[in-house]
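Deliverable D2.4 — example input (structure tokens):
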């Protein structure tokens, strides 16, 4: 596996799991009214994601022999296509997230819906890169 493949896999798995935990607790809070401070929880989620990403990338750099190689034309194409798909997912998701305002959502809930769209779009981008990379191998 190449360095970029491992990096995309780390990003996809860590973002998926950490933000799934965040949004699960958020839904439980809105459904049950359980006391919860979403701002401190979001900051903790971001810090945890940063720590996992940094430590994971340090581990990946230590085990990859192609870490200094420039992206070849094939990987640039994978990245371009994945970014294009992720961008469309982001635009649609952000518009749907903002559209929740018409459903009676409060301001923080709309912000969380837009955050979900951003996280989903980035996971889609990483997943598309992995799919294209795996398919070409």
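Example output (designed residues):
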């Amino acid at each position: 596996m190449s360095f970029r493949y491992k990096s995309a896999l780390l990003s996809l798995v860590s973002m998926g799991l950490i933000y799934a935990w965040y949004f699960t607790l958020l839904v439980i809070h809105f459904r049950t009214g359980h006391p919860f401070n979403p701002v401190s929880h979001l900051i903790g989620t971001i810090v945890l994601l940063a720590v996992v990403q940094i430590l994971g990338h340090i581990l990946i750099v230590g085990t990859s022999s192609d870490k200094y190689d420039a992206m070849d034309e094939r990987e640039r194409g994978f990245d371009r296509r994945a970014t294009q798909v992720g961008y469309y997912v982001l635009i649609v998701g952000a518009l749907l997230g903002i559209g929740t305002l018409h459903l009676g959502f409060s301001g923080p809930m709309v912000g969380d819906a837009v955050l979900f769209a951003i996280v989903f779009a980035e996971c889609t981008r990483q997943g598309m890169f992995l799919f294209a990379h795996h398919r070409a191998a």
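The two ends are 10 Å apart (CA to CA).
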